[in-house]
Amino acid sequence: MPTTSKSNATPARKSPAKSATKAAGPDAITLLIDDHKKVKKLFKEYEKLSKKEDIDGKVDIAHQICEELTVHATVEEEIFYPAARAAIHADDLLNEAEVEHATAKDLIAQIQEMSGDDPMYDARMKVLSEYINHHVEEEETEMFPKSRKAKMDLEGLAVEMMERKEELMAELT
After folding, report:
1. Structural contact between residues 111 and 128, judged by C-beta atoms closer than 8 angstroms
2. 112-162 confidence digits (pLDDT tens)
């Protein structure tokens, strides 16, 4: 009988530990999706300020968008994409994502060098927004589901990604 009660006690201890681990924080994909949502909101805010012709306001938001996207892309390229590449074996999908990042970074660099009253400023922001929406759609409908199916260590990746994101954000301030 003592053996039975020990085996009954062990699963009871493991179960709360597992749920506590999951409750401790989001997984890597949830973090990335949260970033996507944040940037979408910022793009909407940019559009409102642009319509009001609030140059200073839209430039502030544009710089925030550029910083968020730069940090997000770096974390994906350094941590998430290599793990996904090893787990899902979808080189075409990941190669395309990296090319999209490179193009977005080029647009970001152009925007950061421009004056907010430049007639091309809003156009570049619009193209960046559309480009990011396309990229996000592919990640969320193709790459992320494949990554979940592959049973990647998404919780472990999340911890690594959050640490790296904090480092990158600290470098920007």
Report:
1. yes
2. 999 999 999 999 999 999 999 999 999 999 999 999 999 899 999 999 999
Alpha-carbon Rg for the chain, nearest whole angstrom, is 20
Letter string b/e over residues 117-154, b meaning 16 or more CB atoms within 10 A of that residue's CB:
eeeebbebbebbbeebeebbeebeeebbeebeeeebeb
For 5, residues 6+ apart whose C-beta sits below 8 A from its C-beta are none
Kind plus residue range of the DSSP H or E element containing 49: helix 28-51
User: Which amino acid makes up residue 72?
Assistant: H
pTM of the model: 0.83
> Shortest CA distance to 76 belongs to which of 109, 36, 111, 40?
36
We find that the CATH architecture of domain 24-172 is Up-down Bundle (1.20)
| CA atoms within a 13 Å half-sphere pointing along the CA-CB vector of 92 | 1
Q: 89 — alpha (psi -120 to 50), left (phi > 0) or beta?
A: left
Nearest-angstrom CA–CA distance, 98 and 27 = 21
Indicate the domain borders of the chain: 24-172
